[in-house]
Backbone:
């Protein structure tokens, strides 16, 4: 993953959730529903600094080169993993 892409995602946490974000790892996620793949990609995991409730967050973008259409999800129940972050984005309608 490019440093610029990771920086863009960290900025999304600053902008959307008013906290700092430090990249931890990249996790591949495949979300299936009724035997069909509804989303497949890589989710970036961040440790969050300065958020009052969440210690971790998950982020990804659809156009990695431009960093557009960014999703940044806090790890707050029911979100407890990269996979559940993707599921929450799908349910909320943010996922394309």
Residues:
């Amino acid at each position: 993953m490019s440093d610029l892409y990771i920086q863009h995602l960290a900025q999304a946490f600053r902008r959307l959730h008013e906290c700092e974000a430090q990249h931890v790892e990249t996790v591949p996620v495949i979300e299936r529903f009724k035997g069909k793949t509804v989303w497949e990609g890589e989710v970036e995991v961040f440790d969050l600094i300065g958020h009052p409730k969440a210690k971790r967050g998950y982020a990804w973008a659809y156009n990695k080169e431009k960093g557009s259409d960014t999703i940044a999800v806090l790890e707050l129940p029911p979100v407890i993993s990269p996979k559940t972050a993707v599921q929450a984005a799908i349910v909320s309608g943010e996922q394309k």
